[in-house]
Amino acid sequence: MSEVQTSVPPLLEVVNLRKTFARTRGLLRRVHGLVQAVDGISFQIFQGETLALVGESGCGKTTAGRCIIRAIEPTAGEVFFYQDGMKQDLAALDGPALRQARQHIRMVFQDPFASLNPRMTLLEIIGEPLLINRRVRPGAELQERVAALLKLVHLDPRYMNRYPHAFSGGQRQRIAIARALALDPSLVIADEPVSALDVSVQAQILNLLKELQQEKDLTYLFVAHNLAVVRYQSDRIAVMYLGKIIELTTRDQLFGRPLHPYTELLLLSSPNPDPRSKKKPPDLIGEIPDPARRPSGCAFHPRCRYAQPVCQNQEPPLINGAPEAAPAHWVACHLWDRLSLENGQL
Amino acid sequence: MDTLAPLLQVQGLKVHFTSKEGTVKAIDGLSFEVYPEEVLGIVGESGCGKSVTALSILNVLSRNARIVDGTILFRRGAEMIDIARLDPDGEAMRAIQGKEIAMIFQEPMTAFSPLHTIGDQIGEMIELHLLGTPSAGGTPPRAAPPPKPGLLNRPAVRRWVDDQTSAILGKVGMPNPKEILHAYPHNLSGGMRQRAMIAMGLSCNPRILIADEPTTALDVTLQAQVLRLMKQMQADYHMAIIFITHDLGVIAEMADRVVVMYLGRVAETAAVDDLFHQPRHPYTQALIRSVPKTSGPLEKLIPIEGTVPSPMDMPPGCKFHTRCPQAIPGRCDVREPELIPVAAGHAVACWLYADGGAA
Ligand SMILES: Nc1ncnc2c1ncn2[C@@H]1O[C@H](COP(=O)(O)OP(=O)(O)OP(=O)(O)O)[C@@H](O)[C@H]1O
Ligand SMILES: Nc1ncnc2c1ncn2[C@@H]1O[C@H](COP(=O)(O)OP(=O)(O)OP(=O)(O)O)[C@@H](O)[C@H]1O
Ligand SMILES: [Mg+2]
Ligand SMILES: [Mg+2]
């Protein structure tokens, strides 16, 4: 998939990324099934933008993020990272080159309680990547940098010698963000960064992420399942279903004129905090499928209220549904130009 | 709804926990009512006491909890029974638990034993109900009248219970209820377990169903279906639902009336439309401004400043004053406001509305 969006190269270009997990059973760990967690996805992220990956639990969002930073090994595909006029395939790097490249891409996780080592102080947690990568010397220089990072995420630098348990969920997520930003990365992969937080705290973290993006010209891959949150945070949105991208376009096009019936289902099902909202979720047909038993043709067909015989037999390609318009609107549906879908904006 | 007598009346309830670190005033002067056949939404941030409220109503609090003050009046016929005064293990309470007031949880696995089939577990509830005191709930949609219980009639009872169980499983949208009877909880998908739990909650045709975050762990697609199912069941079974969640979107979709809780007290209560479109309490207003919406203009989110105080170290006066942009010094930080009526069915615990509603 190539995008005519702009002539500047993207910051990151993912090409046909795949990850297959083996499902094992018993003591001998015999393989009894394969899960195509990420099944050949391609997309680009441009400098300074936020691209969201959304979809139901198990559709492969986290796996995609982890393959990109090589926290796990992709089964196939390329992950091109453009930095200082150079193009590198992260999926093919190893050793010092991989370590070097990884400094530009950092990750923030969902659970700020699990992701911080309880036996390390904030100074150690945030300072660790700085020391490992020899960015600063221990002592005064390190403290100064950590203090600046804490200020950046609006935490009091005097907390530096405390342990994470003394902080609330929202504060811990700030600590995790400070750690992720320690090496001045250009891309941050945020995997459900507010899902574990209280409603009133979510807004603080979402606003902080936006503010940091402006200040540091950061680029985000924002993994989430909450469409309302995604609507506030992203420029473009990729919708995943069972390991594949089934729709990818700008936020306004996705919310204003979705082209895939699955996107319509997500939009109509998302609860809206307004009792006057009149949108009605369609009847649920079928069950959410087991990723190890992917339906034939379009994987969504057993749950699709518009499905036709062709949907069962042939897999629809991802095509640009708006070739004449400036921002592309990618969709993988046989019927995309014959349906008039609801957008949930009632 | 105001013309009806409440089914449940919580008045001045205080529930405290003793722990190593000190006393946790989890519920600290809570009052609200539940009317027949309504969905009452209870919303609030983590730790504000939603689950403790539910456990108090069912009288299943942990050993370190104590109801320090207040009443939980449950109407049965002309009589009002104070659940707060009932022995948790006594006859009277057992006649209410699961029969007149049932509960469903966020994690369905906590509701089911892994050792018994879904059919046995729901069937047991139905059978207990059949043999025990009949509930005063609405007419359950039952096909056949129950056979006389008794040793001789065992096979007939068994068949009847199985029929009832699969009928309920069918009602909650299980694809093949007769097979599900013999399934164990771990054989079911997450969504099916959730539906089985709702079936269990409904099995005794309760008058009040308490649902504590029943859809929080589900994907939105499944959540939408479960919510719709619960509304349908509420109408069919003529029951009241107390729907507990931290998700304002879910509240907007489910509730007829809403109670907004903050640190163990009611901050505001109103009909759902009034609450979202004319919120009065600064806390409610702030909550609504802080949540992203799926439609409408993309206004900047305004977070609530500060953090929820520790329940072990509660601020004096109105508990929200430490985060309130409109707090009046010398007043809000000194005395705790009581609920003040501001419109029909709309009350708010805030000093801004004392003296006839200054704000
Ligand atoms: N280490 C692993 N071994 C085996 N299977 C795995 C592993 N990690 C993930 N999977 C499977 O891969 C699929 C995708 O999982 P992934 O965690 O990427 O989904 P997700 O979209 O992030 O879901 P969620 O919204 O629940 O976080 C799932 O079916 C999951 O069970
Ligand atoms: N068994 C217990 N012992 C001590 N404190 C408890 C106990 N159970 C609950 N609490 C405290 O009571 C307060 C209210 O807890 P509760 O579980 O009702 O909150 P909640 O509103 O349901 O929150 P959440 O949205 O996280 O479920 C909290 O401060 C909690 O720590
Ligand atoms: Mg994930
Ligand atoms: Mg709770």
Report on the structure:
The complex is a heterodimer of chains A (346) and B (359). Chain A is of the alpha/beta class. Helices cover 28% and strands 23% of the residues of chain A. In chain A, the strands form two sheets. Chain A has an eight-stranded mixed β-sheet with strand order 6-7-8-3-9-10-12-11, sandwiched between helices. Chain A is globular. With 359 residues, chain B is of the alpha/beta class. Chain B is built from twelve helices and twelve strands. In chain B, the strands form two sheets. Chain B has an eight-stranded mixed β-sheet, with helices on both faces. In chain B, helix 4 packs across helix 5 (154-171), helix 5 crosses helix 7 and helix 7 (190-202) runs parallel beside helix 8. Chain B is globular. Chain B starts with 7 loop residues before the first strand and ends with a helix. The relative contact order of chain B is 0.14. The chains are: A alpha/beta (346), B alpha/beta (359). The interface between A and B is large, with 42 and 45 residues. The complex binds adenosine-5'-triphosphate (2 copies) and magnesium ion (MG) (2 copies). One magnesium ion binds at residues 61-62, 191 of chain A. One magnesium ion is lined by residues 61-62, 191 of chain A.
